[in-house]
């Protein structure tokens, strides 16, 4: 809301983590106005098929057990091809809901990670993949949406947001 009030554009990535208790990790990336015709503008205003073919995650585990580092790896992955993504386009934002539970492979990796999450450091870079066409570089280089480091997460410190039902009327 603060970014929107200042005329800025936000990309919100909501990584939904299933389990006996469901969690969400929500990352906000803010930019200025969208440049018409830019890769970012085409991604934001594109259809889900376009977005799914372009949203890329590059993971890394700089601190963690060997088995977790091997399982997560650092191979780039098209998120929309690996898991279900839901896109919600608002006036000054794009929310991307990433459903980790929609993939058996992602769920398997998550099973390894959750048990040792307090000892892990996980880096995630979110990019918009450029298409490599012969004899053209119009989309190069790829565009970084943002990067995050999740470090030594304590799940017991997660909170349930209290939504004020009266806040929409003020």
TrEMBL record:
Q: Which UniProt keywords apply?
A: Membrane, Transmembrane, Transmembrane helix
Q: Where is the Protein ENHANCED DISEASE RESISTANCE 2 C-terminal domain?
A: 5-154
Q: Which Pfam families match?
A: EDR2_C
Source superkingdom: Eukaryota
InterPro entries documented for this protein: EDR2-like, EDR2_C
Q: Where are the transmembrane segments?
A: 109-132
State what protein this is by name: Protein ENHANCED DISEASE RESISTANCE 2 C-terminal domain-containing protein
This protein's species is Genlisea aurea
């Amino acid at each position: 809301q603060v970014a929107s009030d200042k005329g800025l554009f936000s990309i919100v990535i909501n990584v939904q983590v299933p389990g006996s208790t469901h969690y969400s990790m929500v990352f906000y990336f803010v930019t200025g106005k969208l440049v018409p015709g830019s890769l970012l503008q085409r991604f934001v205003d594109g259809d889900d098929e376009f977005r799914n073919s372009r949203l890329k995650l590059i993971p890394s585990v700089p601190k963690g057990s060997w088995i977790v580092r091997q399982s997560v790896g650092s191979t780039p992955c098209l998120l929309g091809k690996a898991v279900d993504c839901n896109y919600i386009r608002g006036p000054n934002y794009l929310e991307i809901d990433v459903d980790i539970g929609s993939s058996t492979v992602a769920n398997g990796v998550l099973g390894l990670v959750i048990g040792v999450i307090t000892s892990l450091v996980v880096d995630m870079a979110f990019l918009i993949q450029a298409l490599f066409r012969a004899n053209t570089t119009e989309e190069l280089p790829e565009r970084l949406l943002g990067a995050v480091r999740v470090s030594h997460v304590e799940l017991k410190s997660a909170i349930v947001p209290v939504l004020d039902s009266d806040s929409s009327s003020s």
